[in-house]
Amino acid sequence: MSCLQTLIVAGSDTSTITLTWALALVLNNREALKKAQEELDIQIGRESQVKESDLKKLVYLQAILKETMRLHPPAPFLVPHESMENCTLVGYHVPASTRLLVNLPKLQQDPNVWENPSEFQPERFLTTHKHVDIRGNNFELIPFGSGRRMCPGISFALQVTQLTLATLLHNFEIASPLNKPVDMTEKVGLTNQKATPLEVHLTPRLHAQVYA
């Protein structure tokens, strides 16, 4: 039971962080928000709520979440690793038993891999980086880690973030107070939180009976 509780609590925390950044990014990029809601209108319609079985059809929404976790991974560093033997890495000597940390923002915004790496461009995951998977198989995007020590709650986290974001964007028009740009400053810590709380105005966008 304690392992299950740890999994749920950890997954809930990182999922909340990802959803906060995703909303902040689409508020500052209204065209992406418009595309996501158009996809929801086409695939779901305004007479129904989003179901888990619908998620596979929401490819642009999935691209938004991938791009969110590329720019703002929930944890800036992966769990520590240790070198098992002396080795040379990119010209640097790494002695055995050295504690190693993977800096995700640096890795996932490498200009040698990503064009305009600091810009929010979900379309890259539908075109140039369509092949990139988020489940640890492509090392240019590993917000959940990779291999045997990757996050065990990845499936839970992806399901929660996709369904929650889809439901929010489908049910509501969202806007920032006074339509001002959202502050994207990060708070330094073990998790990658926004420095300031996210404030959002929600306005229903579906027919009244759908909310009943």
TrEMBL record:
SUPFAM superfamilies: Cytochrome P450 (SSF48264). The keyword Heme applies. It is found in: Membrane. This is Cytochrome P450. Belongs to the cytochrome P450 family. InterPro entries: Cyt_P450, Cyt_P450_CS, Cyt_P450_E_grp-I, Cyt_P450_sf, Plant_Cytochrome_P450_Monoox. GO terms for molecular function: heme binding; iron ion binding; monooxygenase activity; oxidoreductase activity, acting on paired donors, with incorporation or reduction of molecular oxygen. PANTHER family: CYTOCHROME P450, CYTOCHROME P450 82C3-RELATED. Its cofactor is heme. Gene3D superfamilies: Cytochrome P450 (1.10.630.10). Keywords: Heme, Iron, Membrane, Metal-binding, Monooxygenase, Oxidoreductase, Transmembrane, Transmembrane helix. Heme binds at C151. It comes from Quercus lobata (Valley oak).
